[in-house]
Amino acid sequence: MGNYTSWLLILFLFIPFLSPIHCADNTFVPSFYSEEIYKELENLASLLNKDIKSGLGFCIKDVRKDWEEAFDFKGKLDFVDSCVKKKGDFRDRICTVAEIRYYFHGFLEQGGSASNYVKPNKNCNLTSWVSGCEPGWSCSAGKNVDLKKDIKEMPFRADNCQPCCEGFFCPQGLTCMIPCPLGSYCPLAKLNNDTGICDPYSYRIPQGEKNHTCGSADIWSGVVNNSDIFCSPGSYCPTTTRKVSCDSGYYCRKGTTHQNPCSKLSTCNPNTSSQNMHAYGVLLIVALTTLLIFIYNCSDQVLVTRERRKAKSREAAAKQVRETVQARERWKVAKDVAKKGKVGLHDQLSRTFSRKKSANQAKRGMGDAFLPSTAPNSSDTHEQSSTASKSQNKEPTNLTKMLNSLENDPHGNEGFNLQIGDKNIKKQMPKGKQLHTQSQILRYAYGQIEKEKAQQEKNKNLTFSGVISMATEGDVRTRPVIEVAFKDLTLTLKGKRKHLLRCVTGKLMPGRVSAVMGPSGAGKTTFLSALAGKARGCTMTGSILINGKSESIHCYQKIIGFVPQDDIVHGNLTVEENLRFSARCRLSADMPKPDKVLIVERVIESLGLQAVRDSLVGTVEKRGISGGQRKRVNVGMEMVMEPSLLILDEPTTGLDSASSTLLLKALRREALEGVNICMVLHQPSYTLFRMFDDIVFLAKGGLTAYHGPVKKVEEYFASIGITVPDRVNPPDHFIDILEGLVKPSGTVTHQQLPVRWMLHNSYPVPPDMLHFADQIAASSSSSNINDALKATEEVVDQSFAGEFWEDMKSNVQIQRDHIEATFLKTKDLSDRRTPGVARQYRYYVGRVCKQTLREGKSQAMDYLLLLVAGAILGTLTKVNDETFGSLGYTYTVIAVSLLCKIAALRSFSLDKLQYWRESASGISNLAHFLSKDTIDLFNTIIKPVVYLSMFYFFSNPRSSFASNYAVLVCLVYCVTGMAYAIAIYFEPAPAQLWSVLLPVVMTLIANQTKDTLFMRILIKLCYPNWALEAFIIANAERYTGVWLITRCSSLMNNGYNVSDWPLCLVVLIFYGIIARVVAFFCLVVTQKK
Q1: Can you tell me the distance from the alpha carbon of 991 to that of 768, in angstroms, rounded to the nearest whole number?
Q2: Any signal peptide, and if so, which residues (predicted)?
Q3: Which of 351, 707, 833, 1026 has the most CB atoms less than 10 A away?
């Protein structure tokens, strides 16, 4: 690599001389001697160009560009012309390829860390040390040097040693001259008599040599080792022999060839090296803070205004439908009254004229009395004809059309027709699929609901399906029927000997509402979970038949609704938005949108949620609707998908009697449509209890005490000697007996009730419970029964190791069950094609957008923290030219990673329960994940802008804003994916801890030395290493001219390659994609235990 480096420097050093020499007045000075030198050096540069490109790609990406920025002396060759005039042997004093290669080879061997790179050579060694070996001096070769050839050996230089010309530097240990690069200042030094140093350099003249004077510069190296030739900060050097102070309104960095204008909002004093950005910072902070305050307080106002407009449209549609219905009813009443009056008048006239005329004449006279005169005059005829012509020209009003339709067809659909006034009104009423605008859809939905109400009021004995069928003229969707039968259903915890359910036999019929009751710990929720196929970690025996066939309940997942005990709904969505999303994703994809709107409106109407439909459900931090209304929303999310089997876990818990009754009425309407409904119930009132069709009483241990019609439950218990006292609620009395709080009269005990039910239905009795059957037959005493019960409950003690091993096996089996359930694939028998991933993704994106807008305060705080971090880090960590700003970029990687990771945790950690419920119902996991990631892309794009708006202008690096932005975008994308995986896999508290630890630890590792293979691999695996490399490379590329050696030494010491900038971005994006794949896998596998 050392050989290639010297070739590069030769190329840079000698190509400038190919240009003709100009004077100060910019006129060309012809010189045959100079032209010959240019020709020789041109050939030398062409020989080395190819080797330079192949050997020094780690710090030089574009050789021609870097040459132009470092050694383009066009119009600036006064120092060459001056040196030629002073030294006639100028050509023999220029370093050859071998000498320059020797100089920079030592530089590369020492890693750019030494101040002197020249080792002893044939000209300068312990035995031969001429004056030209001193710093700032050079000697002539004494013979013509052929610069057209790649000379491998250094020429002998010891003749006519003189001080080095200005604009050149002469290293100590070499007796030749090398041109100084642009951005440097290489004047002739002056001896400081006080210090003995040749100012402005740091070398001294040799002692004892009176004829030895100060020459030009003596070394060009990295700024860390020696910065003597660098143009000083606050000044700029248009040539290597001229330095100019920076003017007011401009700032001049170290080693620059021109002055940079200050930005509009900054100030620059004369001779300054940086611009004062305080005014910009204050204005920007005030502007952005004002914007964030506006977002913080008004983020959800857009949705509020939109919902208000939709509510007005909905109310207008409902009002129009009600007015139409009322007008129809009033017209029918008036018409009935007119008909009755007409019949009465007809009877009176018939009695008056019956003696004078025949029945036919009287009838004809009756008709004539209501007709105009048969012989009108001509004027009347003309007036009538003109009136008729006017009436024909005038278009009848909507109300007139409706009244005419009611007159022609009293039982028609007028009053519910949404396109009154259309030319094709008499053909047919429009169907839902023919509606397009939102107002038409709403009028259609409310019209259907009003018709259903009217038909139900008129035909109270009809089923709900019959009402809907009449309201829709026979065009009604039929739901598939699901009948669930179970026999000897037993659930036992794996690894233990505890029964959760035991010998449960029965059947749940379509069109009936069943309740499951029992004391706490009787296995009610476990029973429903087993029927729904959600029981995990248990060994199940017995059989469950679906429609008489041994099929998995998961085959009917799309038409099964499961309402969990907890109210798992989205608190930052309104009631209608929760219901509408569930309907969109779970109803048939072929169902027209108006019909879906009708279903949602019907559920809102039946559950009594009209008053709060536009209210947020609410969260722990933000108050929303009441607990009872939230419970009804929880149930409504399953009702809107039109299930065939609806399972509810304690839906009335926490509700008052009125709300419970309203909820059960809505469920009975579903049952009338053929839905099989089963729910767990706690302490119902007697009125509510009588509204159920069937009841299941479970005793402790998961045993059945009764399963049958509600009407016969009291009769059954009375037959075994358990009667309900006066003024006592029967279900409460039965639960107290099953709990053992109330002792029944006679010899009956609560332990015998399951066995009595088995004997009553001729079910087989488990062997360990046969003694209860014997006691029932022998009417044994309760003391003996208790003794026998205690004997059966004795458990054999195990050793600690045996118990620990059993628990370990149980946990492994439970985890295996969860994984098997996650990837279980069954045949779909539900006959319903729900929306695909693409359409569900669209629904999810809309929902997440609303949730993000309503959580605008959190977003505003995230942006404010980034602003503060950018301002502080930009102020404290000004870009250091020696390290290319690595310290500031290190803090940037840590700060941005921390803030963006912690903010990204909210995407998946706040709604885990809601996701688990939606995933269990069959909604796409992929659509859920992609929608979250899509919305977070907005933050991925905006957050780097927010941070750089402060950090970039306060730290003022040389790299462009665009390059810093590109690196930060890739970094944020990477850390956001990691935050997804952390949020999904861990609980919130450890997830935050991991989000803090990972960036700090990985950044510390990335800054370690790469001295071993293990450390090199470990550093490459840390994403901060790639971000830091991208930042430093982008900044280092802007350091040209005199900074070229500094750039190469820094990149070499850090192991960076200037061509790897795109690779760094690709690796960061790749890490982000891998993290998202891992996060999605965790999302699918990690389910609620």
Answers
A1: 49
A2: 1-23
A3: 1026
